[in-house]
Design brief:
Layout: H1 16-20, E1 28-30, H2 33-42, E2 45-51, H3 56-66, H4 69-78, E3 79-85, H5 90-104, E4 111-115, E5 121-125, H6 139-152, H7 154-171, H8 185-199, H9 216-228, H10 233-251, E6 265-266, E7 274-275, E8 278-279, H11 280-297, H12 300-316, E9 327-328, E10 331-332, E11 342-343, H13 351-357, H14 371-378, H15 409-415, H16 420-438, E12 446-447, E13 449-451, H17 452-468, H18 472-488, E14 490-491, E15 496-497, E16 500-503, E17 509-510, H19 520-537, H20 540-557, H21 590-605, H22 609-620, H23 622-627, H24 633-644, H25 658-668
Parallel strand pairs: 1-3, 2-3
Antiparallel strand pairs: 2-4, 4-5, 6-7, 8-9, 9-12, 10-11, 13-16, 14-15, 16-17
Helix pairs in contact: 4-6, 8-24, 9-10, 9-11, 9-24, 11-12, 11-17, 13-14, 14-16, 15-16, 17-18, 17-19, 18-19, 19-20, 19-21, 20-21, 21-22, 21-24
Pfam family, one: Thioredox_DsbH
Organism: Crypturellus soui
Domain Spermatogenesis-associated protein 20-like TRX: 7-169
Length: 676
């Protein structure tokens, strides 16, 4: 009584996402030999469901289908059901996502794929509603149809899956020729700039109408483009596009004005109503982007936003052992007594709540103006809520407000006859009171998985901000996290990185029973982080470890025939394809960052074959870089570093001497992208 009615074998896993499904009435298996053997032995199809713990639609499909006893029975009777956390096993996710995108023209999570017993996909999609709808077939219907197909047309299904795999193999190949040279950097940079310029939103910034994503890779490209074309109109436009986008994002609802940090993306053009989950990889990359904006513009506004992101991560995403957690969920219980989670419940406000929290009269303002009046005016709060029904399909935000700086501080101050300093103090007071009230609400689920790759991105954020803003405490936090990686996500015996570890009972750090080895992105983002940390701290140990990991990366992932790096190691029979990513997305493509890493490594070590490898990666992606560099802005940026060669800055002097520190501060204060 009072306990869960069902428990399946996911209860033995460490991933927060798999544990969320441990009490479904479904006979779930984790990805592994036990499930594969069962499918072969019983000649059953596999149903593969891939998602992650802070994914809104994954929660919806679980509530509707995986918690439904009848649907669970159909699943368990007809299929071997496998659950995968895409953040733990991005290699598995990428193989089947390539299939779903090629066959349905779209992709996303939850990903639902049906496989033959030898793991070949033949049908798939993303979210399915439980029952048939006007234009959509329901999940129950699909399960029954596919089970019937398997019992009646097994041979046709097997033949079809074989053809699909052969087509995928051809479609996903990225190869360079031995004699091929890298594409001309000037042309790649110019085309990428033109394509970004065309898709740019002049009014609100960003590179699409909606949904709008932060895309730090685009912003970093524009900063580098500006640095190489400072005196041209194109250079000026590149800088304006990047700075305006960062300003509009910081004013928008995608930025958490009360709890700091950035949400995943905006559902509208104005950056107003977000999908509320917060991901570590966004915080790391945006801290770097806002730091660079400050270096270039000297505008303290950008430094403040970078500081705000790092405050959020230090407070809410940090493990006491030094690592960084993966994410915070979008959904939470509105009150402790609620039975149902709602998206954004932790972050949104009614006008009434704000009035009650901020009743103080404001000195010097006309009439009976309260702190609530000033706060509501500045952050666009409306009596009946400020979220348009079109952006709230489930009615979860009806009557609620997502805070967004609607006016400039100057305008708000003028409206209430206040001095600018007085207004800043009032708004700060209002934010602090709302933060205290929000702390009483039930918090969203925290994904306490710690990934090497995302920890790498976050270490870069802390190290670069620490160096550029001259904040020793940020560099110290980066050092702590790098020490954590060394202790918990590195195997000194084999010299290899591990993918993930987890916060266990009593806040200890735990490993899964069978540790997952690092993928290409783990090496690439950790190596980049170690170079950034070396430059911020000048502790040579980090540099030596980076070079050691670069050798290991070459050994495990380099493709000697077609060049560039594979995403996963060779030798895993359950992986049907060894892929190379071909675009920079929410995170940069690992091959893109590898180009810059290899150039930095060569500069520090004098090991010149690394320069040659960098050129070969650019050559392998040559066609894409010349036609649609907007898909690879980080690699386009790296191609400039390859062609211009890196500047070397050497500082001589006593490391503890004030004059040496002044020289270092001088170097760090300037944005100069291609230097060591």
């Amino acid at each position: 009584p009072g306990g869960p009615r069902y428990t399946n074998r996911l209860i033995n896993e460490k991933s927060p996402y798999l544990l969320q499904h441990a009490h479904n009435p479904v006979d779930w298996y984790p990805w592994g030999q036990e499930a594969f053997d069962k499918a072969k032995k019983e000649n059953k199809l596999i149903f593969l469901s891939v998602g992650y713990s802070t994914c809104h639609w994954c929660h919806v499909m679980e509530e509707e289908s995986f918690k439904n006893k009848e649907i669970g029975e159909i699943m368990s009777k007809n299929f071997v059901c496998i659950k995968v956390d895409r953040e733990e096993r991005p290699d598995v996710d990428k193989v089947y996502m390539a299939f779903v995108q090629a066959t349905s023209g779209g992709g996303g999570w939850p990903m639902s794929v049906w496989l033959t017993p030898d793991l070949k996909p033949f049908a798939g999609g993303t979210y399915f509603p439980p029952e048939d709808r006007v234009y959509r077939v329901g999940f129950r219907t699909l399960l029954l149809r596919i089970a019937e197909q398997w019992s009646q047309n097994k041979d046709a299904l097997l033949e079809n899956s074989q053809k699909i795999m052969e087509a995928l193999q051809m479609h996903t190949q990225i190869r360079g020729q031995a004699q091929e040279s890298p594409p001309p950097s000037e042309e790649v940079m110019a085309t990428c700039f033109q394509q970004l310029s065309k898709s740019y939103d002049e009014e609100y910034g960003g590179f699409s109408e909606f949904p709008k994503f932060p895309t730090p890779v685009n912003l970093n490209f524009l900063f580098t483009y500006w640095a190489l074309h400072r005196t041209t109109p194109e250079g000026a436009r590149a800088l304006q596009m990047a700075l305006h986008t960062l300003k509009m994002m910081a004013h928008g609802g995608i930025h958490d004005h009360i709890g700091q940090g950035f949400h995943r993306y905006s559902t509208d053009q104005q950056w107003h109503v977000p999908h509320f989950e917060k991901m570590l990889y966004d915080q790391g990359q945006l801290a770097t982007a806002y730091t660079r904006a400050f270096q270039i513009s000297g505008d303290e506004f950008f430094a403040d936003v970078a500081g705000d992101i790092l405050l959020y991560v230090s407070r809410d995403l940090s493990d006491q052992a030094g690592g960084f957690y993966s994410a915070e969920d979008a959904d939470s219980y509105p009150t402790a007594a609620s039975g149902e989670k709602r998206e954004g419940a932790f972050c949104v406000w009614t006008a009434e709540e704000i009035r009650a929290l901020l009743p103080d009269p404001v000195e010097g303002a006309p009439g009976a103006t309260t702190l609530g009046d000033v706060f509501m005016r500045h952050y666009g709060v409306k009596e009946d809520g400020n979220v348009s029904p079109a952006k709230d399909p489930h009615g979860e935000l009806k009557g609620k407000n997502v805070l967004m700086a609607r006016c400039s501080p100057e305008l708000t101050a003028m409206r209430f006859g206040l001095q600018r300093g007085q207004l800043d103090a009032l708004l700060r007071q209002g934010r602090e009171r709302l933060a205290a009230a929000r702390a009483q609400r039930p918090r969203p689920h925290l994904d306490t998985k710690m990934l090497a790759s995302w920890n790498g991105l976050m270490i870069s954020g802390f190290a670069q901000a620490g160096a550029a803003l001259a904040k020793e405490e940020y560099v110290h936090r980066a050092v702590q996290a790098a020490g954590f990686l060394r202790r918990h996500l590195f195997d000194p015996a084999s010299g290899r990185l591990l993918r993930s570890c987890y916060r266990g009972q009593d806040n200890t750090v735990e490993q899964s029973a069978v540790p997952i080895h690092g993928f290409l992105e783990d090496y690439v983002f950790v190596i980049q982080a170690l170079f950034d940390l070396y430059e911020a701290s000048l502790d040579q140990g980090w540099l030596e470890w980076a070079l050691q990991l670069q050798h290991t990366q070459d050994k495990l992932f380099w493709d000697p025939q077609g060049f560039a790096y594979f995403f996963s190691e060779a030798g895993d029979p359950s992986l049907l394809l060894r892929l190379k990513d071909d675009q920079d997305g929410a995170e940069p493509n690992a091959n893109s960052v590898s180009v810059t890493n290899l150039l930095r490594a060569a500069c520090y070590s004098g090991h010149m074959e690394w320069v040659e490898k960098a050129g070969r990666i650019l050559a392998a992606f040559s066609e894409r870089l010349l036609k649609i560099p907007i898909a690879l802005p980080e690699m386009a940026r790296a191609s400039a570093a390859f062609h211009h060669t890196l500047k070397q800055v050497v500082i001589c002097g006593d490391p503890q001497g004030e004059d040496t520190k002044d020289l270092l501060r001088c170097v760090h204060s300037v944005f100069c992208p291609n230097k060591v």
